Amino acid sequence: MSICTPTFYKDFYNDLWCSQRDMINTRSRMLRHVLVLNTAQTSVNFSSTSVLHQNYYEDLGISKNSTIGEIKAAYYNLSKLYHPDKNQGSEEAAKKFRAINQAYEVLGNYKLRRLYDKADNKGRTPIYNFDEWSRAHYGQSFERRKTAKEKHDRQTYEAKDQKLMSQNEYLLLVIMIFTCLGYYKFATESSYDTPKDQTKRTRKTNDE
Q1: Cα torsion angle, 12, 27, 77, 49, sign
Q2: H helices then E strands: how many in the chain?
Q3: In angstroms, how far is CA 135 from the centroid of its own chain?
């Protein structure tokens, strides 16, 4: 089956918009599609340079000096313009939409963009190392998840510790209240007993 048929585009689009749970596997498949496309186009001499190097900045309509904010803005605007929902049945729009997403996958990632620009500056076709791509692409994601998990665990521990402290403070307050009540009761009874003794002694003296 030709990689340029509508069936290929349909499968590629479905892979691109799959569920979050299968994101990593989907992007791995997407990379393989890109590699197949690059190999096929090179074999028929469509271009003397890599498809990846030829189109990424051009696909987003930006310069090589664009900031990450400009890259995101260009991707956002173009993805809305060429989104399949707005261009149903248009093969050209679907092709452009995929090219935009592929370009943003690389240029929107700091490490991948450095590798891409480095290969371009040396005037050679970049060799896409899948392991290196995966580490660069998902490294930050894994780091964020790790940081989020550590933060969650820390917050959970602090919440439990705070709850335990509150319970201890409440228990201490109860003990202090009962202690004060006991002391007050003892002091009150003592004050009642003293006048009674003095009264008895006074009566005995008067009787004598």
Answers
A1: negative
A2: 7, 0
A3: 16
What is the model's pTM?
0.38
User: Phi and psi for 201 in degrees, rounded to 5?
Assistant: -65, -35
86: CB partners within 8 A, 6+ apart: 80, 93
Calpha distance 200→206 (Å, rounded):
10
Domains of the chain, first to last: 56-128 (1.10.287.110)
3-state secondary structure of 125: coil
Rounded to whole angstroms, the Cα distance separating 33 from 192 reads: 97
Q: So what's the pLDDT on residue 175?
A: 92
Helix axes 91-107, 6-16, angle to 10 degrees: 40
Per-residue model confidence as pLDDT tens digits over 155-192: 888 888 888 888 888 889 999 998 888 888 887 777 66
How far is 82 from 90, CA to CA, in rounded Å?
9
**Long-range own/partner contacts, residues 113-116 (CB < 8 A, 24 or more apart):** 116/52, 116/53, 116/56
Q: What is the chain's Cα-based Rg? A: 38
Burial (CB count <10 Å: 0-12, 13-18, 19+), residue 97? buried
CA distance 46 to 126: 16
In this predicted model, what pLDDT tens digit does every residue of 101-132 receive, in sequence order?
Answer: 989 998 999 888 888 888 766 555 454 555 56
